[in-house]
User: Fold this.
Amino acid sequence: MKKRTLCLAAAVAMTASLVAGTVSMADERTTFTVGFDAEYPPYGYMDENGEYTGFDLELAQAVCDLRGWELVKTPIAWDSKDMELNSGAIDCIWNGFTMNGREDEYTWSLPYVDNSQVIEVADASGITDLAGLAGKTVAAQAASAALELLTGEGDQADLGATFGAIQEFPDYNTAFAELQAGSVDAVAMDIGVAQYQIRDKEGFSILDEALNSEQYAIGFALGNEELRDQVNESLMELVDNGTFYDLAEKYELTDMVCLGGSAEEAVEAETGDVTPAETETEAAAE
Assistant:
């Protein structure tokens, strides 16, 4: 509960328009088009039956079920996501989408997953820490948070500069296949995806040192607060009725989800009747 309360504290500032009652009651929308990376398990991928599924897509379907919308699943090339969103081809980007460092580029939903960027290696490589990556070839997905972290101006750019090379791949399935083949020495990726990739495979590990910690949220076009608020409202309802946590358990993400509390708690925290810190203190006292 502590983790969920802390995440609620981080998210609650984003509920102001919802609390103020700015969400239109006349919802004329009939479809909801979600743009996602089709090779990003467990958040979005194609199953053995050829159907697109995953934690994010099932969560999107649950939102649509509440609102009476038809879900349109639209796989996109991740490095074309902005073009797809700004052209109106999709209504949102919903697929393990990191909000940190992009706060001013999109209109964001409440954060719902705490995520870390990590390094995945083959055990036979002998790499046991981040320092061991010096001179090595590290793979990352194009336009990913991990790539931006290692090549941009963030805290880990100096680490990235020690690598022999950083190779970009269109998706993490391909990057992991290259790791299996020995063509790269490591893959920088989201922890949820890393855990999924190695859960049934021996000989691969995730380094104990994480590159950073971040949060996933749903990205809408700048200014699209009305749709954002409608989705936020439905997400909180899915938290209250247990669907959110049922899906997290199904996809083995229970320890990572951070959207918690009830809609009433969010309203109380926003209006000042009670703060998340007070709630945590009172719980500890009990």
Residues 1-6, 15-26, 261-286 have pLDDT under 50 and may be disordered. The two ends are 14 Å apart (CA to CA).
